[in-house]
Amino acid sequence: MDTKTRKGILLALLAAALYAINSPLSKILLAYMPPTLMAGFLYLGAGAGMIAIALIRRIRKTTKTETRLTKSEIPYTVAMILLDIAAPICLLLGLKSTTAANVSLLNNFEIVATAIIALMVFKEEISPRLWIGIIFVTLSCAALSFEDITSLQFSSGSLFILLAGLCWGFENNCTRKISSKDPLQTVLLKGVFSGIGSVIIGIVIGERITVLWSIFAVLSVGLVAYGLSIFFYVYAQRILGAARTSAYYAIAPFIGTLFSLIIFREVPPYTYFIGLALMAIGAWASASDKPLFSRRKSGINQRHQSIT
């Protein structure tokens, strides 16, 4: 494994660790702020963080030369922003009616959605090992989505989480299309426009903020869990691609689940542990995958050595 690939993996894992705090802390803050407004302020926190980073770079004169977005990337940028409005709203609606631990694991459906969309829509190649990971993650999501397997009663909260994962799956692939551009600009656009859009929607549907300090708390969570996490995620995508970055990102739900169990002391049902085992296998298979181009290059080198 070369140094560049290691860097990409490290960035993906760092992004996952930062995002892991989102579900447990957001569940606490939902008691003080309605979901649509919270989704908006989470992204505004991300935008504020990127503005701060940009100012620090300028003051220290450490601005890197990065390619700016062009007109050809406008469709992907607009889609990214709209999907970033829809996804966190679905996530927070799901959080209201299911456990934070369940949400943390169900978030891994984003891996499945990202990989399938990358293959079918954006023609990104997926290896057999990654497909195995996708199958196990899908089985885990199915186990976690039913409140009672014997009666097959589907959880509405889980449905919203899976819908959020689908939105983020499309969003990840749109972000991948512009990942060669300045990540700071990408996250800034996500934060400001997705945040403003969600806040406007929240106000229109009648949501209001009654606890002032909750604004600053949500902005802080957004800065870390959305801003810095997305910032490192985009850099990882640039190196690894959309499907593989999403696979390494699978560690986030396990960290989030640990936080949830510590904070809320929730005793999960048996289906949770079934889902956890399936998810662990799926995440391992996904994370241990090698890109197809690396295997092909290795095969070519081996054939060349055998000839010489």
Brief descriptors of the model:
308 residues; mainly alpha; two-stranded antiparallel ribbon; globular; disordered C terminus
Describe the structure in your own words:
By secondary structure, the chain is an all-alpha fold. The protein has 14 helices and 2 strands, in the order αααααααββααααααα. The protein is globular and about 55 Å long.
What's the structural blueprint in terms of helices and strands?
Layout: H1 3-19, H2 22-29, H3 35-60, H4 74-95, H5 100-106, H6 109-120, H7 128-145, E1 146-148, E2 153-154, H8 156-177, H9 183-204, H10 213-240, H11 242-248, H12 251-264, H13 270-287, H14 292-307
Antiparallel strand pairs: 1-2
Helix pairs in contact: 1-10, 1-12, 2-10, 3-4, 3-9, 3-10, 4-8, 4-9, 5-12, 6-7, 6-8, 6-11, 7-13, 9-10, 10-11
